[in-house]
Design goal:
Blueprint: E1 5-10, H1 14-22, E2 27-36, E3 45-52, H2 59-68, E4 85-88, H3 91-107, E5 115-118, E6 121-124, H4 132-135, H5 140-156, H6 170-174
Parallel strand pairs: 4-5
Antiparallel strand pairs: 1-3, 1-4, 2-3, 2-6
Helix pairs in contact: 1-5, 2-3
Length: 175
């Protein structure tokens, strides 16, 4: 049995990212907040830390889902707030993530802008906004921005989903 692992992910709103990864089998916990790395990436940017069981879900699938559920090929004016990045916790993980990104980049239409950064600091979100989607699934923001990402998961990664988490959206994939 392999010990639990951690990976940091940033790309879009941390409410969206949190909901996506909370919905996956093998994900033990998702900490929503702000991540920072070194040098020019030392400022905090929205993101999550995913603790996962590598015996149940592998890092390659986590990264593939991460790239699919945010604008990983486009820069935009909010990139400092929503940095497209994968934050690694060791040199070995950094090497593995870079290899995965190289492979996935070859399979995609656009060049990935997602950075691989050394994890340095984490600042958690205020408690009242954590677990945002599952506490507020009917709010307009959730219905407009998070539901489409979760429906995408249901359509493309049904075997990787904690089905009970997304039962309320199953009617959407048959529509």
């Amino acid at each position: 049995m392999i010990a639990d692992e951690k990976i940091g992910l940033g790309g879009g709103c941390h409410w969206c990212t949190e909901a996506v990864f909370q919905s996956l089998k093998g994900v033990i916990s998702v900490d929503q907040g702000y991540l920072a790395s070194t040098d020019e990436f030392s400022s905090f940017s929205e993101g999550i830390i995913v603790t996962y069981d590598p015996d149940t879900i592998n890092i390659s699938l986590l990264i593939e889902i991460h790239l699919l559920t945010h604008k990983s090929t486009k820069n935009h004016s909010m990139r400092s707030k929503y940095r497209s990045a994968i934050y690694t916790f060791s040199e070995q993980q950094n090497t593995e993530v870079n290899q995965i990104l190289t492979t996935l980049n070859k399979e995609r239409d656009g060049a990935l802008i997602t950075l691989v950064l050394e994890f340095l600091k984490f600042k958690p979100s205020r408690e009242e906004i954590t677990n945002y989607y599952f506490n507020n699934p009917k709010k307009p923001f959730c219905e407009s921005f998070i539901n489409p990402k979760l429906i995408l998961l249901l359509r493309n990664y049904a075997n990787a989903i904690k089905q009970d988490k997304l039962d309320h959206l199953k009617k959407e994939i048959t529509a």
